[in-house]
Amino acid sequence: MKNLTITIIFLISIKVLCQDFNEKTRYLFGTFHTQNTTINGISVGAFPEFNEKKRFVRTNGIRLEIPGLGLVGLLANGSLIRKEETDEIINGLNISGGTMGNVSFNGITLALLVQSGTENNGIAIAGLWNGIDKSNGIQIAVLLNEATYSNGIQIALSNSTEYMTGIQIGLLNKSKKTKGIQLGLWNINEKRKLPIINWN
């Protein structure tokens, strides 16, 4: 009886704590253009949500954003790296033309052109540009990877981070505070500038 009481209290506590963020739950299919919703399955939409209203959406499964913002993010030249509070979490696979917003990616995120988010825990791949505030895992892009905090690997023609723990591989690699190795044509960290290989 005691164990049952503890279990009930625990479940009620979880419900109360999550109430602000999980007012609605959708199964199999839903849109991420909602507020305070958890979607278990496939979530779809055309563009991210940029508004002043408090919102929280969680996708557990696959998120499809077609077309996404695409070239708009590339024209922003990195200014859309997010440092605000996360209002959308993706646990699983994200596929888009270009996802940008206060999004936390947990798993794999694939963008045709560009993407920007608050956090990457897994693999972030973009056709041209990847901008993540905190990247824990792997960032891969053709042109440019940017991060405020990078814990893992960055691979692109150009890689840039404020705080790096791990490896950067590209033609140009930059880091302001480094614990790791830079491999590329020109490598810059807080101690030195070197071709081919740099470290700290």
Quick structural gist:
By secondary structure, the protein is mainly β. The protein contains 2 helices and 11 strands; from the N terminus they run αβββαββββββββ. The protein is elongated, with a radius of gyration of 19 Å.
Q: Overview of this structure, please?
A:
By secondary structure, the chain is mainly β. The chain folds into two domains: 21-156, no CATH class; 161-200, no CATH class. Helices cover 11% and strands 59% of the residues. The chain is built from two helices and eleven strands. The longest helix is centred in the N-terminal third of the chain and has 17 residues, at 2-18. The chain is elongated, with a radius of gyration of 19 Å. The termini are far apart. Mean pLDDT is 84; it is low at 10-20.
List the helices and strands and how they pair.
Blueprint: H1 2-18, E1 24-31, E2 37-45, E3 57-65, H2 71-75, E4 88-96, E5 103-111, E6 114-126, E7 129-141, E8 144-155, E9 158-169, E10 172-188, E11 193-199
Parallel strand pairs: 1-2, 2-3, 3-4, 4-5, 5-6, 6-7, 7-8, 8-9, 9-10
Antiparallel strand pairs: 10-11
Proportion of residues in helical segments: 10-25%
Distance between the termini: 58 Å
Based on CA inertia axes, which overall geometry fits?
elongated
Radius of gyration over C-alpha positions, nearest whole angstrom? 19 Å
Tally of helical runs: 2
% residues in beta strands: over 45%
Q: Which strand order does the major sheet show?
A: 1-2-3-4-5-6-7-8-9-10-11
Structural class: mainly beta
Number of domains: 2
User: What is the N-to-C order of secondary-structure elements (H for helix, E for strand)?
Assistant: HEEEHEEEEEEEE
Give the beta-strand count. Answer: 11
Provide the low-confidence segments as ranges.
10-20
What does the average pLDDT come to? 84
Biggest β-sheet description:
11 strands, mixed
